[in-house]
Each structure stands twice: as C-alpha cells, then as structure tokens.
Design brief:
Rieske Iron-sulfur Protein; binds FE2/S2 (inorganic) cluster; alpha+beta; six-stranded antiparallel sheet
Length: 148
C-alpha cells in the first residue's frame, strides 16, 4: 500500500469515527437527561389547558392513570366528577424520574429512589422534600380537562 493511499484510507476512517462520535453524543452532555430521568417538565401554573380526555373511553376503571404533557392523571373513584380524579406533575421532585401510581397503596411512588407522594402530591416519604404540583381537573359531560 502506498503512503498516500494509506493516509487517504486513514482519513476516511477518522471521518467515520468522528461522525459516529457526534451521532452518539461523545461530546457535551449538557442537554442530555441523566439515566433514569425524564424531560417531563411540569406545565407552568396558569398556562391553561394541559390536556383533555374522553371519559366514555378513557380511565374507566378506578386506579387507572394516564400520563400526558408532564402530568399524571389518576381515577380515584367511580363517578365522573372532578373529585374522582387527581392530576399531579409526573416528574419526581427529587431528580425528575417519572412517578407511578400504585392503586393498591393509593399513592404515587418513584421507582428511582422510592419517594412516595399522596394523591394530592404531598411528600409521604423521601428523599424527595418538595411536593408534586397538583393540577385542576374539570369534568363537563364526558370531557375531563386538566388545567394548569
Ligand atoms: S428521583 Fe424520585 S426519589 Fe429520587
């Protein structure tokens, strides 16, 4: 192999390596969430409608939940009235992991470090020290709306 040919092949290889590196993010991680975290930023208070669902087809069973737009909405009771539901930010206030609703225990539990929150978002168990933001739920006919 001639020197020039070798260098040309090496140049292509280095370009491929650098391209691959940039595609997989070898550089700055300033915009990357840490492992186990989410980018589910909670809606700002007063920002209006977060999302709506049709109660004729969604969340028909007590304990079921839906996550959308940074909010977790849970059905707590059977009647189609606002007080049968709760809506809180889905991002744990400790490090941002998405929380789950545990229907058997009637509370939100973070799978990352085990923080627990009441259905209104209050901290029941750390390490989280800050309550989850709770959002307003309205029901009009079969339409449930979550408001910030
Ligand atoms: S991220 Fe939820 S307890 Fe740590």
């Amino acid at each position: 192999m001639e020197r020039q040919e070798f260098l040309a092949k090496l140049g292509i290889s280095m370009a491929a390596i650098c391209t691959g590196c940039s595609l997989v993010g070898c550089g700055s991680k300033s915009n990357d969430p840490s492992p186990g975290t989410t980018t589910n930023n909670p809606p700002a208070p007063g920002s209006g409608t977060v999302f709506s669902i049709n109660l004729a087809t969604d969340l028909q069973t007590i304990g079921t939940f839906k996550v959308a737009s940074g909010v977790i909405l849970v059905r707590l009771a059977a009647d189609n009235v606002a007080s049968s539901f709760t809506a809180v930010q889905v991002a744990c206030t400790h490090q941002g992991t998405s929380i789950n609703y545990n229907a058997n225990q009637g509370k939100f539990i973070c799978p990352n470090h085990g923080s627990q929150f009441s259905t209104s978002g209050a901290v029941l168990l750390g390490p989280a020290a800050v309550s989850l933001k709770q959002y307003t739920v309205t029901v009009n006919g079969d339409t449930l709306t979550v408001m910030a």
